[in-house]
Amino acid sequence: MEIRRKLPIGIQDFEDLRTNGYVYVDKTKHIYNLANNGKPYFLSRPRRFGKSLLVSTLEAYFLGKKELFEGLWIYEEESKSENPWQVYPVLKFSLASGEFTEQDGLRKKLKITLDEFEKKYELPSGGDYLSGQFERALKNAFEKTGKKVVVLVDEYDTPLLKNIGGNEEQEKANRALYKGFFATLKDYDAYLRFVFFTGVTKFSKVSIFSDLNQLQDITLDSRYDSICGITQEELESNFAPEIEALASKFEMTKDECLAELKKRYDGYHFTDNLLDIYNPFSLINAFAEKKFGNYWFESGTPTFLVKKLDAINFDVRKFNDNNMKLSESELKDYRPENENPVPLLYQSGYLTIKSYNQKQNSYKLGFPNGEVKYGFLNALAPTYLKVDKNTSNFNVDILDDAVEEGDVDGMRDWFTSLFALLPYPAGGDTEALTEQNFQNVIYLSLLILGKYVRTEVHTAKGRADCIIEADDFIYIFEFKRDVSAKEALAQIEEQGYAKPYESDKRKLFKIGVNFSTKERNIIEWKVVER
Question: How far is CA 183 from CA 98, 111, 207, 213, 435, in A?
Answer without folding.
Answer: 22, 16, 7, 11, 51
